[in-house]
Amino acid sequence: MQIFLSYTQHRSYIVDELVQLLWKLPVSKRALRSYHLPDEDQKQIQMVTALLIQLVHSSANLPEALRHATTGHSILEVSLDATYISKCHEAITETCCLFWTRVLQRFTAVKAQDSAELKLLMENLVTDLLTTLNLPEYPASALILEVLCVLLLQNAGLKSKDVSARSMAIDLLGMIATSLKHDSVSCRQEKFWILQALDSEDDVGCSFPKDACCVCLDRRVGKALFMCQGCNRLFHSDCTGGRECEANQNWHCQICLCKKQLMVLQSFCNMQCKDNGRANRYGSAKSFETANMVTKIEIIQQTLLNFLQDSVSADDMHQFIGWFYMCLWYKDDSKSEQRLTYDITRLKSNLVVRDSGTSHSMLTRDSMKKITLALGQNSSFARGFDKILHMLLASLRENSPVIRAKALRAVSIIVETDPEVLRDKSVQLAVEGRFCDSAISVREAALELVGRHIASHPDVGLQYFEKVAERIKDTGVSVRKRAIKIIRDMCTSNANFTQFTTACIEIISRVSDDESSIQDLVCKTFFELWFQEPSGVQTTFSGDGSSVPLEVAKKTEQIVEMLRRMANNHLLVTVVKRNLALDFFPQSAKAVGINPMSLASVRKRCELMCKCILERILQVEEMNNTEEEVQTLPYVLALHSFCVVDPTLCVPSSDPSQFVVTLQPYLKTQVDNRVVAQFLESIIFIIDSVLPLIRKLTSSIVEELEQDLKQMIGRHSFLTVVHACIKCLCTLSKVSGKGASVIEFLIQVFFRRLDAQTIENKQLIGRSLFCLGLLIRYGNPLISGSSSKNIDVGSSISLFKKYLIMDDFSVKVRSLQALGFILIARPEYMLEKDIGKILGATLSSSSHVRLKMQALQNVYEYLLDAESQLETDKASNDAQNSVGAGQRVVPVAAGAGDTNICGGIIQLYWDHILGRSLDLNEEVRQTALKIVEVVLKQGLVHPITCVPYLIALESDPLESNSKLAHHLLMNMNEKYPAFFESRLGDGLQLSYSFMHALSCTSNEKPNQRLPPKSAGNSKGKYETGALTQARLGVSRIYKLIRGNRVSRNKFMSSIVRKFDNPVRSDSVIGFLLHCTEVLALLPFTVPDEPLYLIYSINRVIQVRVGALEANMKGLVLHLAERAARKAHYQNGLLQEEATQLSVGQVGSMDLNHMAKEEEPVDRAQSNPLRNFDLNGTCKDEPPGHSVSTSSDPNTTRHMNIVEPCSLSQDDINRIQVDCLAATALQLLLKLKRHLKIVYGLNDSRCQVFLPNEPPKPGENLSRQTVPFDVSDVRTSLPTTYQDLVQRYQDLKNALKEDTVDYATYTANIKRKRPTPRKKPGRGAPASQDMYDDDDANLTGGSAVRKRTTPRKRIGRTLADDMDDDDDYDDADWMGGGRRLTGSSTRGNRSAGRQR
C-alpha cells in the first residue's frame, strides 16, 4: 500500500496485479473469506477485497503535511489549492474505474464456459463490498460500487450486445439495488436519537419532556437520568448510545458536544483569517462567517470524524479514512471552496479544541454504524437507486426471454426488501406488462412477485387487482392458478376489500375450466370463503329476531351480490353441488375418506343460507318497493341454485311447507316482463322441486296453487314460465292425488282449440301446440295410469303432422317442438316409419336452420330426460325385491322400457346427427356436438363412428366447439387409441371439406364475420382463415399423440399416404395442398419426428416416381409422334426441295419449342407404326391408320416441326391422371426440402435414421422461422400438350433439386436453375446412368448412379432434344422406354431417393 501511495505512476500496474490475483481465487459461492472485519462478529471478507478497499483509501492523496500535523497552527500552515480536494476525488474515481474496466474487459474476452466462473468471482467481490457498506471504517466501498453501477448501466453492461454481459449486469445491479433499498428501509424504520433530536430542532413548537428521557420517554425512577449541560435535556446513558461511566456532572450530549466543537473551530479559523496573508487566500472574514454556519449535517459528520480520531491506528489509516470522507462531502457541498481551512481543521479537531474543556466521542460503534447509515442515504450512490431500478424495469421489455426473466428476478428481490416499491407507477406498469409476456414462466413469476405481498400490503393488492383478474383467463394453467390464489388472498387478508364481489365473479368463472385442478381450486376457494365453519368465532345474531347467525347472513349477502351482477346462476349451482359433496379435496384426502362432520357442517350452513334468503325475500317485500321483483330476483336465484342441487335444503324439518307457503303468493303478480318471467320461473321451479318432498299439503294450498298455475298457463306471454307452470301442475296433480283430471281437461281444451278450422291467430296456434305437447310430456305417467282413457296420444301426433305441413314457418317450428315433447314421453314412436321420415327431413342439410335446430334440440332433450330417468329408476329398482339369479335388472329410459330403445333410436338417426355436426351454421353445429357428447358419455354408439367428425370439429372457428371436440378426442385417445389412429385419414379429409365449405360460404356472404386470419404459412398464396384454422386444429390433434412414438408415426404416415396415387376430383389438389401445409405446421419437438416424416416421404417417392416419370415421358413422345404422322398423312409425299429445306434450315423442337440444328434421324430407329402406352412400352398403331412406308430419313425431321394435333378426351384424362400424381410428388419434395432447411437436417443425418431404432436421449431440435412456399407448384390440371411438357419438366427439376443437401440453405437464399451439363459432340458416344434398385435401403441419401454400356447415338428426335435439356441421362428417369425401336425398350429401375 505504501508503494501505491508513494508512486502514483505505478498505480495502474498495481491494479493489474490485483486483478490477476482476483482471477486466481477459487470459484465458489462460499469462497474463503479470511479477513475479519474489526469489531464485527461473524463478518469476514476476502483478502483481495480488503486490499482493494485500502488501495482506494490511499488513492485519496492525503497531504503529508496534514498527516503529520500535531498542532492547530501546523494545520493552518498546510498550503492547499481550492481545487485540491476535488482533484483527490477524481483520483479516487480514476482508481475505481481502472479496476472495474480491467475486470469487465476480462469478462467480455473469455469464452462462454469461463464467463460463469468470472461471474461468480465478481459476485463474491460485490458481496464483500456490500458487507462493508455503511461501516464507518470503509467509506471506499460505496464509491467502488457506485463506479461499478455506472459502468454496468452503460455499454459494459445493460447496453452491451452480449447477452451474457447484460445478464451478469442485471444480477449484480439487482444485488446492489436490493442492498440500497434495505439500508433505506432500515434507516427509515429505526431512526437514531441524534437524528430525531436534530429533526425536532427544526420544528419551532417542539418541546421535550422535563421529567423523562427525551429518547425513550420513560419516567421510571429506577434508571439514572443525566442532564445535558448544554440543552438541559434528560437522557438515559444507554439511550444515548454512549458509555455510562463517562456520564458525569459536566456531561454534554453528543449533539451539544459536536456543536460546541464546530463553534470553536469556526472561531479559531475566523481569527486566523483576519491575518493579512490568510484573508487574501481564503476570502474575507465576513464571507467566511456567512459560509460557516453550523448545520445539522455538519453535526452528524463531526460525530463520525470524532469517532475516527479516537480510533487511532499505527499506519494512520484513520487519517486516510477521514480524508476520504472529506473528499466525498466536499464534492457534494457547493460552499466547500469558501471554507477549505475550516474543513481541514475538522479532520483534527482534537488538536484545536484540546484545551477547550470538551471531550470527544462517547458513542459506541453500533451508534456510529447508525450514523454512517444515515449519512450514506445522502450520498450520490444511494440516490442512484432510482436510476438502477429504472434500468432494470426497462430490461423487462427486452426481446430475450432470458434477460426478461433475470430482470424480473432482480426486481423481485428488491420488492422482497420493500413491498412499497410495487406502489410506484413505473414499477406497476413494468410488472403489469410482464403479466402479458409471451413466456408462461415470466407471466407466472410476475404474478408471484405481486402475490407474495398481498397479505402484508392489502393496498398493493387493490392497486394490481384489475390486471391480476385478467390473468385468470390466461392460456397457461399455472398462471391461472396463481391468479386465483392471489385474488383469494386479497379477499381473505382484507375484510373490507372493495372489489370482493368482482373477485368472486372472476373466480367462479373458472369453475368450468378445462383443467380439473383449477376447478378444484375454485371450489376450494369458495369453500374457504363461504362454506367453511369459522373457528374461534362466537355465534351472534342480528337484532331483528332472525335465527340465522350474523356471519352466515354476511356470507349469504355476498352470494346474492355476486348473483346480482351475473347473467345466470349456473356457475353457482356447480359450486354449491361440489361443496356439498366436498369432492375437490386432494386425492390423498379422498382415499382416507371425507370427514362426515365436515359434510354435515357444510349442509347445515347451506340450510341456514336458504333460511336467510327466505327471510330477506320477505324483508324486501315489506319495503313496498315499486320494483319488488327486481330487488328480490337475486335472492330467488340464489335459493334456486341451492334447490337445484338438493331440494331438501328447502324443506326444514320444523315446517316442511314453509318455502311453498312463503313463495306461492308471488305467483299472483300481474307484471309481465323479462325480469319477472325469470323471477317466476325460479319460484315455480323451487315449488316444483319441494312438492314431492312434502308428505301432506293442505287442500287450500293445493287449490290456490292449482288455480294460480292454470291462470299463468293461459295468460303469461313468456313460454319459459308456461313450461315451468305445466311441469309444476303435473307434479302437483301427482302429489295431491287428484290424478289426471286437471291434465286431461287442459289437453282437451287445447286439442279442441287446435282442431277448430276457424282459428286465424297463428300466435294462439303456436301457444296451443306448445302447451299440448308439454301437457302430454309431463302428464304421461298420469295419463297412462288413468282409467278414463280420454286422451289418445296418437291423435295428437296426427294433429301435429297436420300443422307441420302448414305454410306458416313459425307454426311449423312450434309443431315440431310439440312433437318432440311427445316423443320424449313416448320414444317408441320415433321408431315408426312416418316419424322417421319427418325427423330425417328436418335433419337433412337442405332443411331450414330453425327446423334443424329444433329437431336437434328435441333429440338433446330426449337424451337428457332419458339420463335423468335412468338415475331415478336405478334408485327405485334398488328398493325393489331382488331378481332371480337367471335374470338381470334392465333400467328404463324415459318410460319406454328397455334402455336398448334409446340406443336404437340414436343409431337410427346417428348419421343425420353427425352430418349436422359439420353444418355451416355454428349454432346447429354446437347443438349437434352436445348430442355427440351425451351419446359418447352414455355409450349408445360405437365411438369410432364419430372420430372423423370430431377431428374436423377441431378446426371449428367457434372456440367452444373446437374445445369440446378436443376434449372428447382427448378422452377417446386415452380409452381407444386404436380407433383414433385408424380414422385419422378420414378425419383429415372431412376437416378439409368442412373448412372449404365454410370458406366458400364466407366468400358468398362478405358481410359475415370471419374468424381471424392467422399469419400465413404459405408465401404468395391466398388462403382463408378457415383453412388456416383447420391446419392449427390438426396440430392440436398431433399434440395429443406426440408422446407415443408409434401413434405419431402412424399419424404422419397416414397423411403422407394421401399423396400416393391420389384419385382425380375437383378438390383433390386443394386437399393435397392442405395436407402439405398441415405437415409443415406440425409442432415437432424432437429430431425423431421430422426425420420420420422425411423417411415416409422417401418411401412414397421411391415407389411412385420411376413409373410416373416413364409414363409422362412416353406420353410426351406418343403425342409428338402422332402429331408428326398426322401432318405427314395430310401433306402426302414430301417434295425433295421441301425435304432439303427442312434438313438445311429447320431444327427439332425442344421442350421450350426452340428450333435447333440436328443430325438426320435414322428411320429404322423411329417407326411411325409404333406407339407408346402410359407405361412406356411400344404397341402397334390401330389398323385404321394409313401409314407411309417411305424410308426417307428426312420424314422424321419434318415430323419434329409439326404442332401436336388436338387432344381427345381420353388423352386429356391420361394427361391429368399423371400430372396429378406428379403434382402430389412435387408437393412432397417441397415439404421435404422445407423440413431440411427449417430443422437443419443434412443428408448424412437422414441416411442414418432408422424408424425402429430407439431415439437418442438429450437430442435437441432447433427450428428456424422459414415460410413454407408452394406458390411455384402448378396445381391446375393441364389440358394441352404444352402443359404436359411443362409439367414433365417441372417434375424433373424437382427431382434434380432433391439431390442437393438442403442443410446448406437458408431462408433468404434464392435458388438458381442448375447450369446444364456440356453436351457431347456430334457422333460422340453418350453414356447412360442407372440407379441401383435397392428398395430395401430406405434410409440412404442420394441415389447411386452406375455407368452402363455406351449406347450409339443414332439420329435426333424429340426425345434426344429432351435429353439435351436434362442434367442427367435417360436412366435418371427411373423407368420407361429409351429407344423407338420395334424390338426392344430399354427401361430403368427405380432407385431410392432417400435424402
UniProtKB/TrEMBL annotation:
<comment type="similarity">
    <text>Belongs to the SCC2/Nipped-B family.</text>
</comment>
<keyword id="KW-0479">Metal-binding</keyword>
<feature type="compositionally biased region" description="Low complexity">
    <location>
        <begin position="1380"/>
        <end position="1395"/>
    </location>
</feature>
<feature type="compositionally biased region" description="Basic residues">
    <location>
        <begin position="1309"/>
        <end position="1321"/>
    </location>
</feature>
<dbReference type="GO" id="GO:0034087">
    <property type="term" value="P:establishment of mitotic sister chromatid cohesion"/>
</dbReference>
<feature type="region of interest" description="Disordered">
    <location>
        <begin position="1175"/>
        <end position="1198"/>
    </location>
</feature>
<keyword id="KW-0863">Zinc-finger</keyword>
<dbReference type="InterPro" id="IPR026003">
    <property type="entry name" value="Cohesin_HEAT"/>
</dbReference>
<dbReference type="Pfam" id="PF12830">
    <property type="entry name" value="Nipped-B_C"/>
</dbReference>
<feature type="domain" description="PHD-type">
    <location>
        <begin position="210"/>
        <end position="259"/>
    </location>
</feature>
<dbReference type="GO" id="GO:0003682">
    <property type="term" value="F:chromatin binding"/>
</dbReference>
<feature type="compositionally biased region" description="Polar residues">
    <location>
        <begin position="1186"/>
        <end position="1198"/>
    </location>
</feature>
<dbReference type="InterPro" id="IPR019787">
    <property type="entry name" value="Znf_PHD-finger"/>
</dbReference>
<feature type="region of interest" description="Disordered">
    <location>
        <begin position="1002"/>
        <end position="1021"/>
    </location>
</feature>
<keyword id="KW-0131">Cell cycle</keyword>
<dbReference type="GO" id="GO:0008270">
    <property type="term" value="F:zinc ion binding"/>
</dbReference>
<dbReference type="Pfam" id="PF12765">
    <property type="entry name" value="Cohesin_HEAT"/>
</dbReference>
<dbReference type="GO" id="GO:0140588">
    <property type="term" value="P:chromatin looping"/>
</dbReference>
<keyword id="KW-0677">Repeat</keyword>
<dbReference type="InterPro" id="IPR011989">
    <property type="entry name" value="ARM-like"/>
</dbReference>
<dbReference type="GO" id="GO:0090694">
    <property type="term" value="C:Scc2-Scc4 cohesin loading complex"/>
</dbReference>
<feature type="compositionally biased region" description="Basic residues">
    <location>
        <begin position="1344"/>
        <end position="1355"/>
    </location>
</feature>
<protein>
    <recommendedName>
        <fullName>Sister chromatid cohesion protein</fullName>
    </recommendedName>
</protein>
<dbReference type="InterPro" id="IPR019786">
    <property type="entry name" value="Zinc_finger_PHD-type_CS"/>
</dbReference>
<dbReference type="GO" id="GO:0010468">
    <property type="term" value="P:regulation of gene expression"/>
</dbReference>
<dbReference type="InterPro" id="IPR033031">
    <property type="entry name" value="Scc2/Nipped-B"/>
</dbReference>
<feature type="region of interest" description="Disordered">
    <location>
        <begin position="1307"/>
        <end position="1395"/>
    </location>
</feature>
<keyword id="KW-0862">Zinc</keyword>
<dbReference type="InterPro" id="IPR024986">
    <property type="entry name" value="Nipped-B_C"/>
</dbReference>
<dbReference type="GO" id="GO:1990414">
    <property type="term" value="P:replication-born double-strand break repair via sister chromatid exchange"/>
</dbReference>
<dbReference type="InterPro" id="IPR011011">
    <property type="entry name" value="Znf_FYVE_PHD"/>
</dbReference>
<feature type="compositionally biased region" description="Acidic residues">
    <location>
        <begin position="1360"/>
        <end position="1372"/>
    </location>
</feature>
<dbReference type="InterPro" id="IPR016024">
    <property type="entry name" value="ARM-type_fold"/>
</dbReference>
<keyword id="KW-0539">Nucleus</keyword>
<dbReference type="GO" id="GO:0071169">
    <property type="term" value="P:establishment of protein localization to chromatin"/>
</dbReference>
<dbReference type="GO" id="GO:0061775">
    <property type="term" value="F:cohesin loader activity"/>
</dbReference>
